[in-house]
Amino acid sequence: MKTEKYIIISQGNIEDFEDTLLYYAEQEVIKSKPGTWSKLADKYARLLVILSINPYPDIDHESQLSNNQMNAIKYIHHNTHYRNFYRLGFSGGGTGNHRIIFAIHNYGKIIMLHHFLKQYNGLIHRHDILPAELNYEAYCQHDPNLY
After folding, report:
1. Taxonomically, which superkingdom (predicted)?
2. What is the pLDDT of residues 92-118, one digit of tens each?
3. Which residues, other chains included, contact 133 with Cβ-Cβ below 8 Å and sequence gap of 6+?
4. 128 and 114 Cβ atoms separated by less than 8 Å
5. 13 neighbors 115 (Cβ within 8 angstroms)
6. What long-range pairs does 42-48 form, CB within 8 A, spacing at least 24?
7. Using CA of residue 113, residue 117, residue 39, residue 25, what is the dihedral sign?
8. What is the pLDDT of residues 8-66, one digit of tens each?
9. 69, 103, 122, 126: which is deepest, by most CB within 10 A?
10. What is the distance between the alpha carbons of residues 122 and 89, in angstroms, rounded to a whole number?
């Protein structure tokens, strides 16, 4: 059985987040004390694999409760006019509650738009979505959204 994979493209501050993540995980490995950053890097790598196979949120709440990714992917339906925005959320222990806003672009690409640490409860605030929208608009100048 062949599984079609989505292409993952990084925009905005995603590369900075990944560089920071890898730097601190590497420092832990050098010191022979893998810890919080190493676990976070492992979790992030696993979530990227999940995204590349199926970036849509699981609507079956029963399976979400039994799954380790529990509510990791959610549709963003407030504070933006884009209907193809989602968020990837994961806890990093002492590093914070990480959120990445991404867009599913033209049914085949995942554009990772903006990373931030969510330090509040409830919906994602407009000021955290705005950088993702600006990055998406810049990306669409070279690869227009077809839907």
Report:
1. Bacteria
2. 889 999 999 999 999 899 999 999 999
3. 80, 82, 113
4. yes
5. yes
6. 43/90, 43/92, 44/18, 44/90, 47/72, 47/88, 47/90, 48/8
7. positive
8. 999 999 999 999 999 999 999 999 988 999 999 999 999 999 999 999 987 765 454 44
9. 103
10. 13
